[in-house]
Amino acid sequence: MTVQTPDKPSTKTLNYLLVMPRLVRSVKDSYGFPLGIAYVSASMKKAGLNVSTLNLNQSDGKVYDLLKEKIEADQIDVVLTGGLSAEYCMIRTVIESAKHINPKIYTVVGGGIITSDPETAMEALEYADFGVIGEGELTSVELGRTLENWGDFGSVDGLIYKSGSFPSSTELKPLFAESKFVRTKDRKVIDDLDSIPWPDYEGFEMEKYLAATLGTFGFNGTNTLSMVTCRSCPFGCTFCFHTVGRKHRTRSLDDFFKELDYYVSKYKINSLALSDDLFGIQFERLKEFCERIKDYNISWLGAFRLNQVNPEMLALLKESNCAIMGFGLESADNRILKSMKKGITIEQAEESLKMVYDSGISISAGLIIGDIEETLETANVSFQWWKEHPEYCLPVRLITPYPGAMIYHYACNTGLIKDKVQYLRDGCPQINISKMTDKEFQDFTRQIMEAAVEGILPLSSFEMSKIDDESGCIDLNGTCSKCGHENQWEKVRLFKITFVSCHQCGQQFFPPLNADIRQNIDRNVQKIIDRYGKVGVWGMTIHAIDVFSTSDVLKAQEIYPIDICSSKQHDNFFGKQIHAPHIIAQEDIQTVIISAPNHIGYIESQIETNYRHVTKVIDISNLIGTSFDFLGPELPQMLPNPNHVLHLEQQALLRGRAESR
């Protein structure tokens, strides 16, 4: 029941700021555009709310400073942000900074991080006043109107918020601290996707984003646009979680192509990435799409199921300039595919992969090791199959129980995840949920890591014509070992790009490292050691392993290999031990080289949040040349004043809001 208070403030128009968290380190870096926040922004603007936007990926500088400038200039009352569970630190940075800048600001978080496990996320984030569960377009509009009219939050479907007691001290603490969470009714999914305004790309500086999309989706070029034709996926893979629900819904192709026409007229679009969870599930719709998209003369990619590939489909895709088909393979053992609820067999997968490969369309897929039914035997079945098929250029990863997925609930229920809040704060690290012992899993992981470097399908010949250590890019000439075509690739981002594709046949290759680049990395790392002493190297990816395998400098006692994945943390990694991130605090390491640039935003935010004594973070991509400035700027603290004071005025305001319930 809502209790009216006599001193309830009058209705007020509020100013909203939608903030895209920082996912990269520099404005020149590429990243996958988060469509969700752009859709929410468009819906709020259409509803007449006073909305400003800020894309932290398009401005250099400290997050705190950029937010402060925007919040003060636009007199912001409400800050909204969001993302996935793995982006916890980046999201928290936004809302914690906002509270330090102005404690009276309301903070709202949406996306997978909230929807997957709302109570855990709200507790971990601390500074979030409201969480949006599920699709955010309607909920965010209703929440805004409720805030402006001092209405009842309980009437807004799809919300979680804190209510109850308030802190008595004047130190900055989360809104509604030390109180229970309240969840409103679940919001129904939006069936009519055509009713949703097109995403607010302009508000998040789409033109700058397009210029930095090099290699983001596997395309050999920039200006790749992300769009969706549908939402969600009707299948229930055990390692997956659908933020927008399980109901698969499509938008009309007329609406889709009207939107595409607008972007093509406004921006330079070279390629199109369909960000659907599952695109090619309806064949007649796929046929119509192919007929209409081919007139645009742009390459495109989408997600398909391996048990639905056929020659007629491939002919349509090839004719319509489909460059990459994404698949969920995950395992080469039928027992594990059944456990994962994939709904396919390895026999179906093998037949489909060969058809796609022979058609000249590139394949985006991979294997995931460590399912709850995985044994050493089943893992080796997948491993042997992977070694027999280097032509597909498939990565091998270890399964991670992300919040919301069935395997996450399994890990929580069996005690493998003992503290859900701390697990989220730690970045959702990989843990062993399989039937293998920890020792078996670690040994198998080590075997995969070593074989991954040796099993890379090589170019017949290659030459690097340009090395740009400022951007971490190279220009590469190479001969395809499949068809013999002479290729030229420009601005290939080493360590970050997954693969380059032959322009003629679509064969994929991992960008190679030549002797000059290896020597430059060694020389620059030695300079860093000489200046800073102990150095952490975070991210033991296939690229990092390749560098470690030939480097003497990286085997120095001052070097500490680091990875969040527990199954990679073992002895005798080229004579070194791979450590968990807490070694940074334990050994007082003040300099960290990030050797996994695909995750640089996440890793740097982890460092800023959990290891604030670190003063220097370096992208390994910037070590490939001869002009690395190892005396560059120090890493600033995320927040200038951890003991910021919460205004007594806000306490009274919030107390009044609670009493008005």
UniProtKB/TrEMBL annotation:
It comes from the Bacteria. Its cofactor is [4Fe-4S] cluster. Residues 20-154 form the B12-binding domain. It holds the Pfam family B12-binding. The keyword Electron transport does not apply. InterPro entries: BchE-like (IPR051198), Cobalamin-bd (IPR006158), Cobalamin-bd_sf (IPR036724), Elp3/MiaA/NifB-like_rSAM (IPR006638), Methyltransferase_Class_B (IPR034466), rSAM (IPR007197), rSAM_horseshoe (IPR023404), rSAM_sf (IPR058240). Keywords: Iron, Iron-sulfur, Metal-binding, S-adenosyl-L-methionine. Residues 219-434 form the Radical SAM core domain. Coiled coil: none annotated. GO terms for molecular function: 4 iron, 4 sulfur cluster binding; catalytic activity; cobalamin binding; metal ion binding. PANTHER family: ANAEROBIC MAGNESIUM-PROTOPORPHYRIN IX MONOMETHYL ESTER CYCLASE-RELATED (PTHR43409). This is Uncharacterized protein. The lineage of its organism: Bacteria, Candidatus Blackallbacteria.
